[in-house]
Amino acid sequence: MNIIENIKGFLRHRIKDPAARATREPLLDALRSEYAWTKVRNEYFADHPLCQVCHYNKDGQVHHKKPWHLFEDLRYEPTNLITLCQPCHFRLGHGRNWKKWNPEIQELSEGVQEWLDDIRDEG
Predict the structure, then answer these.
(1) Do residue 33 and residue 56 come from a single domain?
(2) Same domain for 32 and 54
(3) Do 43 and 13 lie in a common domain?
(4) pTM score of the predicted model
(5) How far apart are CA 62 and CA 86, in angstroms?
(6) Tally of domains in the chain
(7) Whose CA, among 49, 76, 114, 121, lies 20 to 30 Å from 31?
(8) 34 and 55: one domain?
(9) Does residue 26 share a domain with residue 58?
């Protein structure tokens, strides 16, 4: 049985059982939230497929500049997103610690791009 069938069965049980109805909303809210995030993430990534620090085109991950668990109203806001490859995500977006976040990731990515442009112009 796959995950979708498990969720459907769980939801059917919750909808039929009046005592269980009170607990169905958090699950439905979580599913709606995940669907909304997936949609926003995929749309953003389609428009910004390269790492915005190093321009690597593989392992792209959409990163929240301000973490959504602290800034919930910015979770789906495209101006709060930046595409990073996995190494830049960990090293620069989180300072080599997934529990941290870099509030200056946008400025850092722009600075790196200016530096790379200068090197290209010299060559």
Answers:
(1) no
(2) no
(3) yes
(4) 0.74
(5) 10
(6) 2
(7) 49
(8) no
(9) no
Written as one letter, the residue type at 4 is I
| 115 and 62 housed in the same domain | yes
One domain for residues 108 and 57: yes
**Which residue's entry shows tokens 């290209």?**
120
How many residues make up the chain in this entry? Answer: 123
What secondary structure, in 3-state letters, does the chain show? CCHHHHHHHHHHHHHHCCCCHHHHHHHHHHHHHHHHHHHHHHHHHHHCCCCCCCCCCCCEEEEECCCCCCCHHHCCCHHHEEEEEHHHHHHHHCCCCCCCCCCCHHHHHHHHHHHHHHHHHHC
Per-residue pLDDT of the chain (123 residues; tens, 9 = 90+): 565 665 666 555 555 555 555 555 677 777 788 899 999 999 999 999 999 999 988 889 999 999 999 999 999 999 999 999 999 999 999 999 999 999 999 999 999 989 988 888 886
Q: Note down the domain range covering 97.
A: 49-123
